[in-house]
Amino acid sequence: MADTPGLVVVGVDGSLSSRAALRHAVREATWRRAALRVVSAYEPPELWALAYGEPFPAGGSGVADAVRAETQRVIDAALGGDPDEPKTELMICPGSAGPTLVAAARDADLLVVGHRGRGYTRMPLGSVALYCVLHATCPVTVVRPGSSGDAAGADEPARAGLGGR
């Protein structure tokens, strides 16, 4: 029986936490000799228009293309041309981040998410990370940016348990 390469999935939204999660996922995928699936979810503009009662022109607005370009830029910066970089797949998906990440990680060995994205900063765990921890069928690692707050600093996986440090 031949060894099949594993899969590490990571959610990226452009925040410092997601950049730290991406760097951690690259290291994990390299160490595991696994493929890397980078997932970026976005709320379609049609939903924004409905929420605010505004008309939305047919044909889209290029939001998916803009998300793809920005996420690819973040990936390129994280990989930095390393010759040992994992095989990388980019998925841009309309929809809520939590369910999108859980679905993308259905066949994964590991799902990596940032500790806090674009929401409140004093919560112990963000809503997306919590959703993933509760619903993913694979292990989930929640990564914080370095303790200095510098995304380029050392990345720390969050410790197990929601009540402790």
Named at the architecture level, the CATH assignment is 3-Layer(aba) Sandwich
Strand order of the largest sheet: 3-2-1-4-5-6
Query: Order of helices and strands, N to C?
Result: EHEHHEHEHEE
Main pleated-sheet profile: 6 strands, mixed
The Rg value, from CA coordinates, equals 16 Å
CATH H level, superfamily name: HUPs
Q: Find the count of extended strands (DSSP E, 2+ residues).
A: 6
Q: What's the CATH class label?
A: Alpha Beta
SS element count, helices:
5
Task: Describe this protein's structure.
By secondary structure, the protein is of the alpha/beta class. It has helices spanning 16-32, 45-52, 63-79, 97-104, 127-135; strands at 7-11, 35-42, 88-94, 110-114, 140-144, 156-157. The chain has a single domain (7-157), classed as HUPs (Rossmann fold, 3-Layer(aba) Sandwich), CATH 3.40.50. It has 5 helices and 6 strands; from the N terminus they run βαβααβαβαββ. It has a 6-stranded mixed β-sheet with strand order 3-2-1-4-5-6, with helices on both faces. Mean pLDDT is 81; it is low at 147-156 and 158-165.
